């Protein structure tokens, strides 16, 4: 009977709408259901929820920031999930509250290439001190990145003091994650032969540490050799963080070997950069740059999605690439048409 | 008497204004005085010359592109001028016409840190088959870059078939030069001890070749060692150009040793990338990206220079970096005010 009754309703599971105050109170109390709903609110693509979600965030802002924000990248198969499960569980045991988020622009297309399968972090997901959230769907990296940043703030306000942001190396996603975390680490694998091949362009230069995973069993020596090789290379690159030397380490997410060291390195990093002020400065810059990038993305979107511009852009671009129209003249013409037709 | 007469005039050297047709004809005839005036026209910051300069460019466009465009970067003291003088003179002797331009965003501040002193390339400057133009003054890298790109087109239309664009490693200038040339080379020095220190972030990854200069006399062996070290590193990086392996070489701009090899490498590169289509594709993309960047710069300029935005931006940004206003809310507020007040 109840079933039949529900079927007659448009939204069988419709829940009471929460007010801004209820969202804020629930998050600050660490209520998991409200946290999840607050995240769903900021993840919404619907403009009608934008102002509400921003108001919730504004009221939560004073309670954010009391965490260490870790970014983790690595190729598929590098062992990110095993590492996060292992590190996260250890930290929960020590009294920390750990939130795990993902930035994965591909997940909206391929349906959850990371964190989609919750069973990958089964143990951590069930831990009452942990909160595991898959990558938001919804298009562009810019969109995914805004949602992840805001989710991070909600988790901080809810009392999570370790935020782990995972990403796979798709497009610009590492750069995006680097721009929202304090400490960025790259998880790597050794392989037969050429250890360093396949390193994505520029990734070493934004990392605060490289960890070579699966340094266990017969693979241990290979991993140690790779570590030495990476350290040689890193020595010649400018470090990602002023006053901090990026180094390579070995780790075994499987046996747990090196996980304590990893956490010690992160703490040493935090202590050092807090003392020098680099930590605080980076966070301020990240907020400021985040605002700038939102503005600039919107300015571009307004332009390129203008119906009149859409109509003439292809033809204009064709003339430019064919070399019959100088780019500055083309740009000037498009901008003047835009200003007339918006 | 003549002197006195001139002093009484406001513009003692005022020249007859050229028409668009006169500019175009003069440039196509390779008339040096007209080329110089056409460049001055595109370098002008005055809006009243913009349309005229763009019309000149539009008419010249069909005659552009018949050249190899080389970008050269290197720290001050690496020997860029000596190399360009040596390579340029050699190429003129072989019948080429060589134009040397500079992209140096610092020159407007520090008054010509590169190419400002013409005596640095005295021999080449006097060569009738060469055209040496210092970096345009005028503010932003964006502005300097537009002027240099357009100057390059004028030189090509005038028959110069080798365009050398020089830059010092200031800010984003290498990336800018990379985006306007076919082949990008980095000139380096060996030093005592740590050969690879001081390499600017990301430069190796946009280079088509590294040349270690001053491989002469007692320095020869050190240079050879550095070359081996760089090649080791380059092996692990993705190449800047698809289908072309970036390698390190030694050279002596002073003795001329290795200059012929350099030219052979450049020709081999051109041949290979023309055959694969990478050469043509990159040029098309460069034109298209140039137009996009001009549009996006202007959209940002319109926004940030809007008087109302200027008035409220500082305060808004302060709230964002202090963590009391969420970035997305700040961006939304600024954009909505902008749309109301433009």
TrEMBL record, chains A, B:
SUPFAM superfamilies the UniProt entry points to: P-loop containing nucleoside triphosphate hydrolases
Enzyme Commission designation: 3.6.5.-
Source organism, top-level taxon: Bacteria
GO molecular function: hydrolase activity
Hydrolase is among the record's keywords: yes
UniProt xrefs under Gene3D superfamilies: 1.10.287.130, 1.20.5.170, P-loop containing nucleotide triphosphate hydrolases
UniProt similarity note: Belongs to the SIMIBI class G3E GTPase family. ArgK/MeaB subfamily.
Protein name: Methylmalonyl Co-A mutase-associated GTPase MeaB
Organism: Thalassorhabdus alkalitolerans
């Amino acid at each position: 009977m109840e079933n039949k009754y529900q079927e007659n309703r448009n939204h069988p599971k419709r829940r009471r709408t929460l007010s801004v105050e209820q969202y804020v109170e629930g998050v600050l109390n660490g209520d998991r259901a409200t946290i999840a709903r607050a995240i769903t609110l900021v993840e919404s693509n619907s403009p009608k929820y934008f102002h509400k979600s921003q108001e919730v965030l504004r009221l939560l802002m004073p309670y954010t920031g009391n965490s260490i924000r870790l970014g983790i990248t690595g190729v598929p198969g590098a062992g990110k999930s095993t590492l996060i499960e292992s590190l996260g569980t250890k930290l929960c045991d020590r009294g920390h509250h750990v939130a795990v988020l993902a930035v994965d622009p591909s997940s909206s297309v391929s349906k959850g290439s990371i964190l989609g399968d919750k069973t990958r972090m089964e143990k951590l997901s069930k831990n009452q001190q942990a909160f595991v959230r898959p990558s938001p769907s919804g298009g562009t990296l810019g969109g995914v990145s805004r949602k992840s940043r805001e989710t991070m703030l909600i988790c901080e306000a809810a009392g999570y003091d370790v935020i782990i942001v995972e990403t796979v190396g798709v497009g610009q996603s590492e750069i995006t994650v680097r721009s929202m975390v304090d400490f960025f680490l790259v998880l790597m694998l050794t392989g037969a032969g050429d250890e360093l091949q396949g390193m994505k362009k520029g990734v070493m230069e934004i990392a605060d540490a490289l960890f070579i995973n699966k340094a266990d069993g017969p693979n241990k020596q290979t991993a140690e050799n790779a570590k030495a090789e990476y350290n040689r290379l890193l020595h010649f690159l400018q470090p990602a963080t002023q006053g901090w030397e990026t180094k390579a380490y070995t780790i075994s997410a499987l046996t747990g070997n090196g996980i304590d060291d990893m956490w010690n390195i992160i703490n040493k990093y935090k202590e050092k950069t807090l003392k020098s002020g680099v930590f605080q400065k980076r966070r301020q810059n990240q907020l400021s740059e985040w605002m700038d990038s939102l503005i600039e993305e919107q300015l571009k979107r307004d332009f390129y999605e203008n119906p009149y511009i859409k109509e003439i852009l292809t033809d204009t671009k064709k003339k430019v690439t064919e070399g019959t129209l100088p780019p500055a003249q083309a740009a000037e013409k498009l901008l003047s048409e835009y200003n007339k037709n918006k």
